Amino acid sequence: MPKKNLNNSTTSESTLEVVNLVVLLLGVVLVLLPLGIVFLTSFAPEGATLALIPQNGWSLTNYQDAWQRGKFLLAFANSTLVALAVTAFQIISSALAGYALARLKFQGQQVVLLIVLATLVIPFQLLVIPIFLVLKWGHLINTYGALIFPTAVNGFGIFLLRQYFLTIPIELEEAAALDGANRWQILWRVMLPLSRPALVTLFLFTFIGEWNDLFKPLVFTTRPELRTVQLALAEFQEQFTNNWPLLMAAVAIATIPVVILFLFGQRQFIRGIATTGIKN
C-alpha cells in the first residue's frame, strides 16, 4: 500500500512538472513571437511577405537606411545621456532617503513613508501641468534639465532600497560603528555594497523606463537637437507608415540596446545575489 501511494505521488509530481513546462513554453512563445516577427520583417525587402528565411537572403539594407533616415545617432546620444543622468540621480536620492527611512528614527517618519508610497499611485501625466509651469519658471523648457529633473527622484526607488536595507542585519552596522565609521561611511561602505541586487534592479528599471519614455520629450521639448530615441522613432513611423520592413528595422535599432543591457544586468543581478552578505 505505501508503495502504491509513493507511485501515485511520483506520477502526480511528474504531471505537475510537465504542466509547468508547457505553461512556461507557452509564455516564452507569447513573449518572443512579436520580437521574432519584428526582426524577421526588418530583414525583408519592401513589399515582401514574411518568411523565416527571406528569398533574397539576409540583408542589413533596411537597418542602414533606417539609421541614416531616422538620424538615430543624435537620438541615441540624447537618450543615453538622459537615462544615465536620471538613473544616477535616482540611485543617489533613493539610497539616501531609503537609508534614512530604514535606520534613522525621527518624528514623522511614518508620515514621510506614507507620502512616498502615495506618490506611487499618482500618474506622472496628472502632474504634467504643474511640472511644466515649474520648468518654465526655471527657464528649463527645451533643455536637458526638462528631461532629467522631473523624474530625478522616484518613490519606487526609495521604497525598494528602504525595504532592502531592512533585510541587512543591523549587527553589521554596529560592528562598523565600533571601528569608528560614521553614518556616511556605513552607508557607502557597508550598506550599498551589500545592496547590489537592489541597486542593479533600480538601475535597470530606471534606465529602461527613461529609454522608452516618449512623454517628456514630446511635452517639454521642441528642439530637434534634443530628440530622444522614442521621439525619433515616433517621427520615423509617421514618415514611413507603409514601409513595414524599414519601420521594423527602426524598432529593432531602438530595442537592441535595451535588450543587451537587460541581459547583462540580469547576469549581474544573479551574481550580486550570490555575493550578498548575511540576511535576516
Query: How far apart are the first and last residues' alpha carbons, in Å?
Result: 43 Å
Helix content: over 70%
Uncertain segments are 272-280
Q: How many strands, which pairing sense, and closed or not: the largest β-sheet?
A: none
Radius of gyration: 24 Å
Helices and strands, in order, run as HHHHHHHHHHHHH
What percent strand? under 5%
Secondary-structure content class: mainly alpha
Number of helices: 13
Indicate the overall shape: globular
Mean pLDDT: 84
InterPro entries: MetI-like (IPR000515), MetI-like_sf (IPR035906)
Membrane topology: Multi-pass membrane protein
Main location: membrane
Keywords: Cell membrane, Membrane, Transmembrane, Transmembrane helix, Transport
SSE layout and pairing:
Blueprint: H1 2-42, H2 61-70, H3 72-103, H4 109-119, H5 128-137, H6 144-148, H7 155-166, H8 170-178, H9 183-194, H10 196-211, H11 215-220, H12 229-239, H13 244-274
Helix pairs in contact: 1-13, 2-13, 3-7, 3-10, 3-12, 4-7, 8-9, 10-13, 12-13
Main location: membrane
Keywords: Cell membrane, Membrane, Transmembrane, Transmembrane helix, Transport
Domain ABC transmembrane type-1: 76-265
Characterise this structure.
The chain is about 75% helix and about 0% strand. The protein has about 280 residues and is an all-alpha fold. The radius of gyration is 24 Å and the shape is globular. The two termini are about 45 Å apart.
Short overview:
With 280 residues, this protein is mainly α. 74% of the residues lie in helices and 0% in strands.
